[in-house]
Amino acid sequence: MNESNAKKLETIYVKIDADVKERAEYVFEEMGITSTDAINIFFRQVINTSSIPFKIKVSKPKRIPISEDYDNYI
Predict the structure, then answer these.
(1) Domain map of the chain by residue range?
(2) What does each of the 74 residues of the chain score in pLDDT, given as a tens digit?
């Protein structure tokens, strides 16, 4: 591959809980992929779906107070 066809790669630095990283890397190893592969898969799915590719659920939804200023919350 010559330089004009080479893809430009970016580096992302992420802070993550050590236990979460270790447990996820175990799963990735079982799947035969690296953390880098998993992140690339995630980013490609974001592009393909124009969204986060899984459901995100808030454990305790924030309630919006109903008042005379209701229009300010919309």
Answers:
(1) 11-54
(2) 556 678 899 999 999 999 999 999 999 999 999 999 999 999 999 999 999 999 888 777 777 666 656 566 55
One-letter amino acid of 48: N
In terms of residues, how long is the chain?
Answer: 74
Closest CA to 53 of 36, 63, 41: 41
> Distance of CA 37 to CAs 21, 40, 54, 63, Å?
14, 5, 18, 38
Provide the whole-model pTM: 0.67
CATH class of 11-54: mainly alpha
Query: Shortest CA distance to 40 belongs to which of 1, 7, 3?
Result: 7
Which residue type does 47 have? I
